[in-house]
Amino acid sequence: MATLNINGQSVQVDADPDTPLLWAIREHIGLTGTKYGCGVAQCGACTVHLDGQAVRSCVLPVSAVTEEQKIVTIEGLSPDGSHPLQVAWRALDVPQCGFCQSGMIMAAAALLAEKPRPTDEEINEAITNICRCGTYRRVRAGIHQAAAAGGATAG
C-alpha cells in the first residue's frame, strides 16, 4: 500500500511497488488524462509533474515516490481548463488527434514555471514529447501565447 499526494489529495494505492506511477494514476485512481504511449519514457504522453518537475510516469515505480512529494496530473493543472496553456491550446487548435497533448501541456507547464519567457531554442530543448500528428509549430506558438498571458500560473 502506498500513499500518494495527487492533485492535492492524499490517496491510498494498493499496488505492487514496481507498478509504474502511470498505472497507479490511471487504473488505481481513475485519472485517465495521463496517457500510455510507449512505455519506455520516450514519447512523453505520460508526463506528469513531480514536485514541479516534468517526469515520465510510465517508468517511475510507485515505490520511488514518497508521500511528501506532490504529483500533478493534467486534471490537477487547472480544474476548469483555464490554465494559460490550455487556453492557448484551444485558441490555436494545437492538437489534431490530441493523444499526446496532456503530456505536452504538462511538459510545457514545467518549462514555463522554470523559464517564464522561453526562446524557441529553449522550447525545442525542453519539449521532447513526440506528436505523431506533427503539430510542433502550433505547440511552440501555444507556449509563446501562454507565456505572454502569464503561463506559469495555474487557472
Automatic annotation (TrEMBL):
Cross-referenced InterPro entries: 2Fe-2S-bd, 2Fe-2S-bd_dom_sf, 2Fe-2S_ferredoxin-like_sf, 2Fe-2S_ferredoxin-type, 2Fe2S_fd_BS, Beta-grasp_dom_sf, Diverse_Oxidoreductases
Organism of derivation: Teichococcus wenyumeiae
Keywords, in A-Z order: 2Fe-2S, Iron, Iron-sulfur, Metal-binding, Oxidoreductase
Top-level division of the source organism's lineage: Bacteria
Molecular-function GO term, any one: metal ion binding
Protein name according to UniProt: (2Fe-2S)-binding protein
Keyword Iron-sulfur: yes
Occurrences of domain 2Fe-2S ferredoxin-type (ranges): 1-77
CDD domains: fer2
Keyword RNA-binding listed: no
UniProt cross-references to PROSITE patterns, sorted A to Z: 2FE2S_FER_1 (PS00197), 2FE2S_FER_2 (PS51085)
